[in-house]
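okkk here we go again. third time trying to get the coenzyme A bound version out, last two times i messed up the smiles copy paste (missing a bracket lol). double checked this time i swear
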Amino acid sequence: MKLILKAFIMSIQFITNKNGLEYPLALIHLMAFPEHDQWQVKDFKQLLALPYYHVCLYSNSENCLQGFLLYVQILKEAEIITFAVDPICQNQGVGKNILKQFLKRMEQESVKKVFLEVAEENKKAYYLYNFFHFQIHTIRKSYYGKNKNAFLMIKNI
Ligand SMILES: CC(C)(COP(=O)(O)OP(=O)(O)OC[C@H]1O[C@@H](n2cnc3c(N)ncnc32)[C@H](O)[C@@H]1OP(=O)(O)O)[C@@H](O)C(=O)NCCC(=O)NCCS
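finally!!
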């Protein structure tokens, strides 16, 4: 029953009109990421203006944004640029749902390879990517600062 309800009240949207989205995305990013990793409204505005950048939004039944995934899709490859869930909605399956719907969409669009970078210390995000069968391709040493490694992860669809 709980699962049925969850599926019913959530809504995933792949957005074509990105106008004005920089504000809600920056807000969620600000709340979800530690201070040194936060992106500003102007950062999102710049990225959203680029043609290959796309957004997947996750909202509840009141149309309140709970999370998003920003990605680039060019021909048969896609890259996850950033992905965040409002902290008060975390650990309730929102992130898993966004990734699931995103990967489904990529499959429909005949994308063959999805890749991303994730901090080695970001255990939860790593767990999720691993759950969806992303594999570590390369370890980028000190990518996020001294001794802060990143994993380049890839999933072939
Ligand atoms: C990463 C993030 C998007 C996940 O969203 P979420 O809604 O909390 O994720 P979910 O609730 O769908 O799933 C969390 C899973 O991680 C597991 N988990 C939670 N904490 C964990 C930890 N410290 N180590 C490993 N796994 C963990 C949970 O058990 C759950 O798995 P399960 O459903 O199989 O039990 C969210 O935490 C976030 O916005 N984090 C900050 C920004 C970020 O790191 N983004 C990713 C950048 S690459």
